[in-house]
């Protein structure tokens, strides 16, 4: 609770008469049900939430339960530090090998025997599998990386595990530049956020399954301000209405244990982060997040996205930047990156809506309301320390899945497009462009 309160005091809004007029208009549209429920922190139903939009849009997914949200705020107190003396400490990762999730766990736990690394058991999946945080570095400037949320997209985990092993090897071999970086920066990661989904690849090389064991798409389940809603002026959110392999955002936001684990991890680390990156796998695209936040925040994310695309692009293998400033994107809403970007700039949790939102005059407004109120973009102040948030989509050449040819293509993309130097590049970029 203390962290969320402090974020509230760090951010404020520009005093623009037009925006004040707009917010007054929107405030009048908010029903007496909302005003009453906000004062007493009562949860609104889907129909009640939609009624507050006065015909401007619709909520499609119920909000997160308040008690479940607040339980994520002190989750780090329950983490288990791993020191696995039964492990041989071998962090090397063979991208051509098919690893079961149990074998991947062994590779993660191997870092616990190295002085420059930390391994934390931060929670459990639906079926009780372990979810880990893996940190390499001792610096106080954090680069956060999350991958493995989509079951059918294993390349991100393979890339990250290879990058971290190479980084640690460079440090332990006495490379002075690496040592200097790792005393200024820490790479803090979740190598596999959906271990139950990943374990499906233990028995099937190829699958259409993105979701967790409950049939919930974790990329849509985070209680971000943009999640589970659409404005009638925008396209309808493309959510499925039933559990299945992909596209179902859950019975309510934040419902899944994997989502809650990552929320607690972000709460612990986001204030020290200069970069957040999601490694996904859809086709050489880099998305700057924060498009509906402050101009400063969006421009920082856009600049990083352009830089990464340039760094990774090769002849006949170009990475593109999806740079249109959008909100309520449908399939992209409610992602871990959305949640991270909003948390970083001080959005607060609304008990009424079950989502993060923007505080104004004692109310916490979800995305449609503050967008319609003219609070979009530059009216939201950037946080005092620099921060950029992007999602990088690895090429799907050869298809998703984990069959032999897919793994060969993943390794080819890694070697040919500069992925091997990505972590070094990010630290250099942060030194030059995201200094305090």
Please give a structural write-up:
The protein has 436 residues and is α/β, with parallel strands linked by helices. The protein has one domain (2-433): Aminopeptidase, CATH 3.40.630.10. It is 36% helix and 16% strand. The protein contains 15 helices and 14 strands. It has helices at 2-10, 17-29, 32-39, 46-51, 66-71, 101-110, 155-172, 176-184, 195-199, 257-269, 295-312, 336-344, 367-372, 404-416, 422-433, and strands spanning 57-59, 80-81, 117-124, 130-137, 141-147, 185-190, 229-231, 273-281, 285-288, 320-321, 348-350, 355-360, 363-365, 388-394. The strands form three sheets. The protein has a nine-stranded mixed beta sheet, with helices on both faces. The chain has a three-stranded antiparallel beta sheet with strand order 11-12-13. The radius of gyration is 21 Å and the shape is globular. The model is unreliable at 1-40 (pLDDT under 50).
Q: What's the pLDDT, averaged over the residues? A: 85
Terminal Cα span: 26 Å
Secondary structure category: alpha/beta
User: How is the biggest beta sheet arranged?
Assistant: 9 strands, mixed
Q: What is the helix/strand order?
A: HHHHEHEHEEEHHEHEHEEHEHEEEHEHH
Which key terms come to mind for this protein?
436 residues, alpha/beta, Aminopeptidase, nine-stranded mixed beta sheet, disordered N terminus
């Amino acid at each position: 609770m203390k962290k969320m309160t402090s974020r509230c005091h760090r951010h404020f809004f520009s005093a623009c008469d037009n925006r004040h007029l707009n917010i007054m208009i929107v405030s009048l549209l908010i029903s007496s049900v909302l005003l009453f429920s906000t004062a007493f922190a009562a949860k609104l139903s889907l129909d009640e939430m939609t009624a507050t939009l006065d015909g401007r849009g619709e909520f499609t997914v119920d909000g997160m339960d308040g008690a479940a949200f607040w339980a994520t705020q002190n989750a780090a107190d329950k983490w288990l530090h791993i020191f696995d003396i039964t492990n041989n400490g071998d962090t090397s990762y063979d991208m051509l090998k098919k690893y079961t999730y149990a074998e991947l766990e062994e590779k993660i736990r191997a870092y616990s025997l190295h002085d420059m690394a930390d391994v934390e058991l931060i929670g459990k999946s639906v079926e009780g599998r372990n979810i880990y945080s893996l940190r390499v570095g001792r610096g106080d400037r954090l680069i956060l990386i999350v991958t493995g949320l989509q079951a059918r997209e294993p390349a991100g985990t393979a890339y990250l595990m290879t990058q971290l092993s190479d980084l640690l090897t460079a440090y332990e071999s006495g490379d002075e530049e690496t040592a200097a970086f790792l005393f200024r920066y820490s790479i803090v990661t979740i190598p596999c956020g959906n271990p139950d989904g990943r374990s499906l690849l233990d028995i099937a090389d190829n699958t259409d399954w993105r979701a967790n064991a409950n049939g919930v798409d974790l990329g849509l389940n985070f209680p971000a301000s943009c999640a589970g809603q659409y404005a009638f002026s925008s396209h309808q959110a493309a959510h499925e209405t039933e559990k299945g392999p992909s596209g179902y955002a859950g019975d309510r936001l934040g419902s899944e244990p994997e989502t809650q684990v990552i929320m607690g991890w972000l709460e612990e680390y986001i204030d020290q982060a200069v970069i957040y990156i999601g490694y996904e796998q859809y086709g050489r695209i880099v998305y700057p997040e924060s498009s509906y936040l402050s101009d400063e925040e969006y421009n920082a994310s856009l600049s990083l996205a352009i830089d990464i695309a340039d760094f990774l692009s090769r002849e006949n293998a170009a990475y593109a930047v999806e740079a249109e400033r959008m909100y309520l994107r449908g399939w992209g809403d409610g992602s871990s990156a959305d949640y991270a970007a909003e948390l970083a700039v001080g959005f607060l949790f609304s008990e009424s809506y079950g989502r993060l939102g923007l505080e104004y005059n004692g109310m916490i407004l979800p995305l449609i309301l503050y967008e319609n109120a003219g609070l979009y973009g530059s009216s939201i102040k950037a946080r005092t320390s620099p921060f950029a948030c992007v999602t990088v989509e690895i090429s799907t050449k050869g298809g998703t899945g984990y069959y032999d040819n897919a793994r060969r293509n993943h390794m080819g993309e890694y070697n040919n497009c500069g992925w091997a130097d990505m972590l070094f590049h990010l630290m250099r970029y942060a030194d030059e462009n995201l200094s305090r």
